[in-house]
Amino acid sequence: MSYAVKELFLTLQGEGVHAGRRAVFVRFAGCNLWSGREADRAHAICRFCDTDFVGVDGDGGGRFADAPALAHAVEAAWGAGGERRFCVLTGGEPMLQVDDALVDALHASGFEIAIESNGTLPAHPRLDWVCISPKAGSEVVQRTGDELKLVWPQAGSDPDAYEGWDFAHLLVQPLDDADADANVAAATRFVLERPRWRLSLQTHKLLGLR
Questions:
Q1: Where are the alpha helices (H) located in 9-158, listed in sequence order?
Q2: Per the residue annotation, which of 46, 64, 75, 87 is the catalytic one?
Q3: What family does the database annotate (predicted)?
Q4: 51 belongs to the catalytic site
Q5: Ligand-binding site membership of 100 (annotated)
Q6: 50 an active-site residue?
Q7: 12 is known to lie in a ligand binding site
């Protein structure tokens, strides 16, 4: 199959357990919880997304004919050095496109593969790191993984239920909107009240990275 990629770039992972780690981000086009059009946001399941995942016209993006072509682009973005190669498959919703061929091609190129997903589709079983960010109002089927990242505050979400899911790390991340300062305070209180959770900040934004 071909792959529709909005953008592909080298950066530092800005969020979660791997924050600060060198990574190639592959942002797939398309999502099943919002069309990406502002006209549809008010009626979408996920209404607070801050990411442009529409089309394939971003930096490094395009329509890749097959898995080897996309893996080659990831290799090129990483550059020299074969140690600790790390790529993050994100979106949009990456599990709309991630398949056996792509996972095999990236592993053959020496990459550890992480995914950031809304969890409404099963994660590929051979991914190396699974991060799920549940969205209130959606049916999350992927309830196991390495990292659960809850954007907060989020009306309708159920942290008590999430604590019963099988994740090694539970993180809460302040919603980045017009009330950002209040959201940081709310997320901080959340962690102080719930010792199983850790605070995740979007450090890439603080550093001026994507």
A1: 38-41, 67-78, 100-108
A2: 46
A3: Belongs to the radical SAM superfamily. 7-carboxy-7-deazaguanine synthase family.
A4: yes
A5: no
A6: yes
A7: yes
49 belongs to the catalytic site? yes
Contacts of 205 (CB under 8 A, 6+ apart): 14, 176
∠ at Cα 180 (87, 121), nearest 5°? Answer: 40
H helix or E strand, kind and range, residue 85: none
Is domain 3-206 annotated with CATH 3.40.50.300? no
48 among annotated binding-site residues:
yes
3-state helix, strand, coil in the chain (%, to 5): 25, 25, 50
Marked catalytic residue, from 7, 18, 28, 31: 31
In the residue annotation, 131 being an active-site residue is answered as no
| Segments making up each domain of the chain, as ranges | 3-206
In tens digits, the chain (210 residues) has pLDDT values of 899 999 999 999 999 999 999 999 999 999 999 999 999 999 998 988 888 999 999 999 999 999 999 999 999 999 998 899 999 999 999 999 999 999 999 999 999 999 999 999 999 999 999 999 999 999 999 999 999 999 999 999 999 999 999 999 999 999 999 999 999 999 999 999 999 999 999 999 989 998
Joined tokens for residue 139: 């049916």
